[in-house]
Design brief:
Number of helices: 16
Shape: globular
Bound molecules: nicotinamide-adenine-dinucleotide, magnesium ion
Order of helices and strands: EHEHEHEHEHEHEHEHHHHEEEHHHHH
Number of strands: 11
């Protein structure tokens, strides 16, 4: 951001994106200070961040963790204020002392605080894609109504943001002259695995992403290609682009982070090493540029950059996400909820990897998708998706 220093609130501070954000902020004390931090249960991680960044206020979603943190902060001689619960998260997200909010909580748990930041008219750096998937129309309407500045952190959407014509982020984008958005996908660790081998995938294998180091949930989503499905929905809302003009292309090297194809045949791409500090630094400083700590890209070290179409047969989650978006209303919230429950069950070895799409398809088939005009509608769809998903696991889940 231009001119003077600005306070930053990091929601999901102990996670992968949260820690990468703190690393960028650490390099630029002259531009930003850490005003507040929020996390769920990781008291040790939060204590370490408090000792280094000295935020004025922090929140733990988990009440017990908040109590333990209070004791630990006192023992360390820090006067940091400690809040708790979802309410605490919304309070720091909307606090006037922060001009910037980094929304990096994983899953539906981040929706209320991401929205609180939007409604307070902040510069919101959005990593929490699930929030947008669940409530896209509502979320974007709130961005417009409250004059928030929404900048995507997801590497693909940040790349698209960089390749699209420069705009005032407070006005809707003009699609004139734009042919399509090309979202790149690494294809995950199982890109070339035959279908029968996918039946035996373990959580450890699914979390071992070839290029990116990330939280467990998004790692599994990347392996199933649900992450790309969620990102198609995210792009649809962020850039108001018709679904048939959002295309996915598998690019296993994760160097081209996405592309915009124009009517005149030009294709603009954003390239960089697979390190989230690049989009984070871009979104923090936009429209300026600052060092992120990421090494320069040496193209002579890249033996090849390849691009192939996605295989919807072996990775049905991508198709399911397109279907849910076409269905509209509460269907994307149902899809997201079913996926969150399925990923959690897979990580706990209560069901197999290829049961993830089977569960989601069954939930989408059985649920009444309803509408998603209000936050209550969205959470009703979320609750229905979770209930049906848990029912499915109860009846069908197998321990692998
Ligand atoms: P992570 O699991 O590493 O971290 C999640 C953070 O959210 C932690 O700080 C945790 O304490 C907090 N959290 C979890 N449950 C919570 C709850 N109920 N209430 C409040 N806080 C809670 O996840 P991550 O990889 O950093 O991903 C965060 C978000 O960013 C996800 O939406 C993900 O899709 C998105 N994202 C991540 C990456 C990446 O490289 N890691 C890239 C693009 C987008
Ligand atoms: Mg991404």
């Amino acid at each position: 951001m231009q001119s003077s220093r600005h306070g930053v609130c990091v929601l999901g501070a102990t996670g992968s994106i949260g820690q990468s954000t703190l690393d960028v902020l650490r390099r630029h004390p002259e531009r930003w200070w850490v005003e507040s931090l929020g996390a769920n249960q990781d008291v040790e991680g939060m204590l370490a961040a408090c000792m280094e960044f000295m935020p004025r206020v922090v929140t733990m979603a988990d009440e017990q963790a908040a109590m333990r943190l209070k004791v630990a902060l006192k023992a360390a001689g820090l006067l940091t204020e400690v809040l708790s619960g979802e309410e605490g998260m919304e309070t720091i997200a909307a606090d006037a002392a922060s001009a910037v909010v980094v929304a990096a909580i994983v899953g539906a748990a981040g929706l209320r605080s991401s929205l609180a930041a939007v409604r307070a008219g902040k510069r919101v750096l959005l990593a929490n894609k699930e929030a947008l998937v669940m409530s896209g129309a509502l979320f974007m309407a709130e961005v417009a109504a409250h004059g928030a500045t929404l900048i995507p952190l997801d590497s693909e959407h940040n790349a698209l943001f960089q390749c699209l014509p420069a705009i005032d982020v407070r006005t809707p984008r003009s699609l004139a002259g734009i042919d399509s958005l090309l979202l790149t996908a690494s294809g995950g660790p199982f890109l070339d695995w035959p279908l029968d081998r996918l039946l035996t995938v373990t959580p450890e294998q699914a979390c071992a992403h070839p290029n990116w180091s990330m939280g467990k949930k998004i790692s599994v989503d990347s392996a199933s290609l649900m992450n790309k499905g969620l990102e198609v929905i995210e792009a649809f809302w962020l850039f108001s682009m018709p679904l048939e003009r959002i295309k996915v292309v598998v690019h296993p090297q994760s160097i081209v982070h996405s592309m915009v194809a124009y009517a005149d045949g030009s294709v603009l791409a954003q390239l960089g090493l697979p390190d989230m500090r690049t989009p984070i630094a871009h979104a923090l400083a936009w429209p300026e540029r600052v060092p992120s700590g990421v090494a320069a890209l040496d193209l002579t070290q890249m033996s090849q950059l390849t691009f192939v179409p996605p295989d919807m047969q072996r990775f049905p989650c991508l198709r399911l996400a397109y279907d849910a978006l076409r269905q509209g209303g509460g269907a994307p919230a149902l899809l997201n909820a079913a996926n969150e429950v399925a990923v959690d069950a897979f990580l706990q070895r209560h069901m197999g990897f290829m049961q993830i799409p089977a569960l989601i398809e069954s939930v989408l088939d059985r649920a009444a998708s309803g509408c998603a005009q209000t936050l209550d509608d969205v959470f009703a769809a979320d609750a229905q998706g979770r209930a049906l998903a848990n029912e499915w696991i109860h009846k069908r889940g197998v321990v692998v």
